[in-house]
Batch of 3 targets.
Target 1
Amino acid sequence: TALRAAGSTVTVAQFSDLIAATEEFRQRSPDSDGKEQTIREALQFACVRLPRDQAADAIGVVMEKADSTQRSEMMDLLAFLGGPRALSLVSSAARSGDDLSVDTATRVLGEWLSIDAADELQKLASEISEPKYRLRAIRGLLRLGRQFDMPDRQRIDLIRRGHELAFRSEERQLAIEIAARYPSREGLQWLIRLQNSDVDVDAENSRVLLQTIASVAQRVAKDSPREVDSLLNPIR
């Protein structure tokens, strides 16, 4: 279609006009099959072609004038685009006070496709008062630790932060399960510190924690038996 073709040739200066054209197309073709897919593809074609931060800035200009519904659509586009500028714009929307924008922004950040979102998710989990949005930020932080490749130390830092912010047993247990999924010396050290800490742990999580320590220790001990033996001494 002409709209897809425009997305394939648009310049940064024309990007805002392309977004306006997609809205006109939506209004003109309210019942057409594949309408939303056509709009999405046109905008995504443009995002792939243009310098990422410049495209994000153009989307940001549109968001300033948009209603809540269009702002939400633009945030999904920013998630596709990625990069530090897109992340900053979505993070700002999460603090906007507009419920639909906050809802979309926390969802988008919780599904962000790189670990760059970790610090923002931690801040939001600390700042937001609404439990459902706090929960989304915490689970997003833990998801990063579960899904992405990274050094062991960085992974344990992410799940430690998620565990500390968690206000439900389910997320605390999820953090422990991630440490079990990626057994490492750093993970074992964190689990043991957790076991020896003064943090209140319910009976189920206490059982899971001890089982996880035993499982991770067994796997790490294959490479470092003496170190593991030394780490386990305080909880024997």
Note: The mean pLDDT is 90.
Target 2
Amino acid sequence: GGTLELANTAVSGSSVGNTNQIFLDSSSSLVLSGATLNGVYLNANAGSVITVAAGAASLINNSSNGVFNMNGTLNIADAATLNVEGSIGSGSGVINVGDGSSPATLGLAGVTNLGIQTVLNGASVIQGNGYALTTGVAISGTGTLTGFSTLTNNRTINADVAGGTLEIDGTTVVGSGTLEATNGGTLELANTAVSGSSVGNTNQIFLD
């Protein structure tokens, strides 16, 4: 294992063979600091760590090609921003947005399909910037989800921190998922419409 640090650097892949591959084994780390990954094949094994450093925002853009297999941990540091676009991730890993000391941001740079479990900490934000977000994974913790043209929730959005609040603000929530608050947390819907369906009871709200 070792550490790959990309600072103020752009790495571009290709639709042919997914060139420019980055592989992280169980003891490897990747640090992004003002870095851009365009269509890169990124494979992070269990135990690996990706850190987005504070300062200039970093970008992972898989809008036209690129693969992100995430079985490790992606930490967006306090006061750091990671912008994403396209199909972002699959696997058993997790994205931690901040550690609770000061807000971090996971921002959309285009229409995004999020496939990695995501935990917000403190007052951190998932910022839509006017784009649509589709989630097939759990989003939990405390902070704010805001600014989406639509938020398609196909799994769970869970305010699960005792005494903490997870807010969905200024969007329309659709999809087949669940909105819930557990463990003494509060899920707040502000300036938000929730649309369900007569088929499958989509967008279920559970009160324990």
Note: The chain has a mean pLDDT of 92.
Target 3
Amino acid sequence: MAKADSKTETKQVGQKKCFVIMPISVPEHLLPLYDNNPKHFSVVFEDMIKPALETLNLEAIPPSATAADVIHGEIIKNIQESDYVICDMSSLNANVFFELGMRTAVNKSVILIKDDLTSKIPFDLAPINTFTYNSKLTYRNVKQDVTNLTDHCKVSIHKSDKQDGKNALWHYFGLTVPAPVVQGMIGEKADIERLEIKLDAVMGEIRRQSQPQPLRYGGGITLGAPVNPMNPLNESIFGSVNSASDSFKGITSTLNDTKGENSAAAHLAKILIRTNETGRK
């Protein structure tokens, strides 16, 4: 017999979804403002946003913590398809505003919130009523903000439903043509493309570090000698890529025979080989 106090979460049939756009972590330069807790926004989601949405019988979908530097397929799908979206603009995170722009582009409603440390938001978002919560996540503050956020979401959702889920900014700016809704890439192909982006970013950083670096002496600036592109760190990175690419070279022909040249695995092999060759230049 199952225990009566089981905490297993069950999703109700037909339950509407609310995707949450918010920062994944606190930027290093803002840590002192957030009690030096890099996971501050995870607490905001779990202790404040999620309980408020569950009070309204909504499924709270958190931002993905994987591949955080890439706006990937699953996020795009949630932005486009969720019944509602909450956008936390706290700390003015660039990815958050990019995702907010995507939601606006497809003319779907959004609920805006921010903390009390974020005093100024872009002026063109002023037409949308924004809920402000206390950044100090004490028990008393969180309890009060859950209640207030629940009320704010209830009013926002009521307005959204009356307007068939349309974005309020469209009315204020006179927009008429929404962006076409496309299917985001999910699965093996998306994983490969994210890997390609990350490898390109690694190689770009290594090339950047290999350029002459300015050295400051007192009030003057003197160009220092170029950093050796094959310092121990770079050698380690290139070695790992080289080892992987050599392994993939040995199976590329088999992959092409069995899955075709456009298979995700074959594509991965080509990425590693190309990255390795770039690193050797």
Note: Residues 1-8, 217-229, 248-261 have pLDDT under 50 and may be disordered.
